[in-house]
Fold:
Amino acid sequence: MEIIRSQDGTPIAAWHSGVGAPLLLVHGTTGDHTGWTPVRAALERHFTVWTLDRRGRGSSGDATAYALERECEDIAAVMDAATAYVLGRAKEVRRPAVVLDIDETSLSNWDNLKADDFGFIEGGTCSLQEKMPCGFSDWIDRAIAPPIEPTLKFFNSLRAKDVTVNIAVFFITGRRDKQRQATLWNLDRAGFNGWAGLATRPDNQHGSIVPFKSGERDKVAEKYTILANIGDQDSDLEDLKGKSAECSFKLPNPYYFIP
Structure:
C-alpha cells in the first residue's frame, strides 16, 4: 500500500501490481478496493492494475465534511493521468485514437438525477421545475447536459494547437439511435468540437450494453490505435474479443450501475 495526497491533502490509500499499461479501478459508494479481488489476478496478466480506497472508505482518510467537489477532484486526477499517457504515446503509434463514453464521463446528468431523487424515470416530461420529476428521455432530447469539465479539458488538450499529432476522438454511448441528433447538439453546445465519430445504440437492442460497446470499439481498432478507453462503468471498458485499447481509465460514478 502507498499513500497519495489528494488536492485537499486527504491521504488516499492505493495499491498497484501486474505488468503492462496502467488500469485504474475505482469501487462504488459502499465498497473499498477489496471489491476488485475476484478479477484482479486475471487483469494483472495484461495491465499494471491500480486500486484505491475512495476518501472516507477503507484505509483512506477523509475531509472534515463531505463535498461533491472532492469527488470531482478525483475525476480530474484520473483525467490528468489519461492526458499525460495519451500525449506521451501519440507520436509513437500509427493513427492514435481515444474512445470516450458520454453520460457521466463526458456529459453530466446531475440535474436529471437530482430532480428524480437519484432514481430513474425514463418516460414523461422534464420541466426541471422544483419537486417535479424529470424523464430521462426528455432530458436527453433537451440537449442541455453540461460537460464534465475534466473530460472537456482532456478533450481540448488533444485538440490543442501545439499537439502535432492528429488524435481521433470517438464517442461510444448507450444512448439510442433515436437520441442521436439531440446528442450531437448537446456535444456541440458543451464544447466538444472536432471529434471523429459517434456510435449510438440501436433502438431495438436490449440486454447488456457490453456487446454493443465492445463491438464498436473493435471497429475503431481495425483502423486506429486506441490509446485510451475512458468510461464511468465497468461495461464501458469490458472487451469481448481481446483488449481493444492500450489503456483503460474508469471514472468514479457513485450514482448508478449499468451492466
